[in-house]
Amino acid sequence: MSDDHTPVPDEEPEERPDPDLDPASTPPRGDLGPMLEEPPGPINWNLLTADDAEEEWLELNQWVNWLRTTYGLPASVIPPMWHRHPELHWELSALHTHWLCAYDPQQNGSAPIGWHRDFADARQRLRDWVAACGTRLDRDRPTRQTVWPGEDDADPIEDTPITDRDEDFVAFVIADVERRRQIEEDFYATLDPDTGEIT
Question: Region Disordered: which residues (predicted)?
């Protein structure tokens, strides 16, 4: 048939650069960390190894800095010491994972609007967490814990001035990684090297 569109044998197909080999063909992404091969799953901070925790803390911190500056968020939504308040870092971690999934190249084009809708809900929850825990722009204190009958009285809670937030974050992550590494070492010390069973 005359409508046959089969290419002529001596025609060469148009070559396209491999984005993995040609950095110029990859659009810039800013400072948001590594491009993932697939959307991530939820992060359970209770189960992270020392090395995984260090990586996740650094990536989350980088993203939270991007989030607060991009959207002009006040300290009543994201305070400087969010990392010292589990209720804040769990919420922000979930929001980060949701953002990564919503902006994955394979995601549906309407996913970002869904993320922004959920972001509005998350901002209200973050305000509630910040108000309840009492952390501020210039000072911080541990989140108050309700003592149940039969439990020991809680230690007194005092405000601590914030003088260098980034320095505190680094110290916090180092302490968290060391704590996790000690737990791992203590566990492996209980294993029989020959059988792999707990002694």
Answer: 1-42, 141-161
